[in-house]
Write a structure and sequence with these properties.
Helix content is about 5%, strand content about 50%. It is mainly β. It has a single domain (about 5-340), classed as Neuraminidase (6 Propeller).
């Protein structure tokens, strides 16, 4: 099971595409009242992945030393952009940090490659710094990651569960737990990853089974793990986000196009409207059901978009933004876009 999850692969692809064509791209914060704001960078290109309900932003940037690797940042109105450091301490071009989630307490999750080359999932707090989760991998895959955190400080992602480092499972962890809880697999499944968690401890993500296309999964304390379902002809699908109402959004690949999907309790799977191109992806949904992501138009240009509902046409909320990756309950959106230097 060597396939990398598309969570950050697609982000860096779009970032590189825009940077090559237009120059440096930066993390942004968009507000329904004030519009888009360039959050800047601590080096080269940057992107924001998540925003809390009180406006704390996290993401990653490329340091300016001539090599392409990433360090993580946290941004607040009071402090601006601050590097959170490296799990295990130290600093070098072998150490990378991706910040993937943040809550209103300012606690951050993500994954990083330490100075010694080992990859870890981490929980970071403003007072205590880094806590690493689960076993440590020396492999160059995504075996140990933390992708999401809720307001209860519950964390999910994936951790390696076999001696060879080739199989990983979704987990549930919170401060005070001695070990993360392995969430197991769906019947017949080989591995999986938790990509999002809501405040009712419901987790969504992706499940892998031998000989089957990867598909979106759902986990609850009461029912355990199950598959969300996908349409015939799908070659790859995963759920990216879930809100407290149980509404889920994600990505479905058919082999010829990338489609954004939506589902909810009592509602079947439906695809969101696009901009006429072959690529659409839904990356986040807030408590009001507003969805954000990106879509390509008929010229194959990619735009950050917002869907007011699951049946609405997408809206390009800023011509500067190339990809929207997070939204909070205030309607503030973060992602990555191009800003003239």
């Amino acid at each position: 099971m060597k396939k990398h999850f598309l969570f950050l692969a697609s982000v860096t692809f779009i970032l590189t595409t825009i940077s090559t064509a237009l120059g440096q791209s930066h993390a942004f914060l968009w507000d329904p009242t004030t519009g888009i704001r360039d959050l800047g960078t601590l080096g080269g290109d940057s992107f924001a992945t998540a925003v809390s309900d009180n406006g704390i932003v996290v993401g990653s940037y490329i340091p300016t030393d001539g090599r392409i690797y990433y360090h993580g940042f946290i941004w607040t109105e009071a402090t601006g952009m601050v590097d959170i450091g490296v799990p295990g301490g130290g600093d070098s071009t072998t150490a990378e940090v991706f910040c993937t989630g943040v809550n209103s307490a300012g606690n951050v999750v993500g994954y990083g490659r330490q100075v010694d080359g080992r990859q870890v999932a981490f929980f970071w707090s403003p007072t205590n710094g880094f806590t690493t989760l689960g076993d440590i991998s020396s492999r160059s895959d995504n075996g140990n990651t933390a992708y999401a955190i809720n307001e209860l400080d519950q964390v999910t992602g994936n951790l390696i569960v076999d001696q060879h480092g080739s199989i990983y499972h979704a987990y549930l962890w919170s401060p005070g737990m001695v070990q993360p809880r392995d969430l197991g697999t769906v019947d017949g499944g080989q591995g999986n990853s938790g990509l999002a968690i809501n405040n009712h401890t419901k987790i969504v993500g992706i499940s892998f089974a031998l000989g089957q296309p990867p598909e979106p999964m759902n986990w609850t304390k009461k029912l355990g793990m199950s598959l969300i379902g996908m349409v015939p002809g799908t070659v790859f699908s995963q759920a990216y986000a879930i809100n407290d109402a149980g509404q889920v959004v994600g990505l479905d690949e058919t082999g010829t196009s990338d489609l954004a999907f939506y589902t909810a309790p009592g509602t079947g799977l439906r695809f969101l409207k696009g901009l006429g191109g072959n690529s659409t992806s839904a990356r986040a949904i807030n408590g009001n059901g507003v969805i954000v992501g990106f879509a390509s138009d008929t010229t194959d240009a990619t735009h950050a978009v917002m869907w007011a509902t699951s049946t609405s046409a997408p809206v390009i909320f800023s011509t500067a933004a190339g990809n929207a990756l997070g939204i909070n309950n205030l309607g503030q959106i973060v992602g990555q876009g191009y800003f003239p230097q």
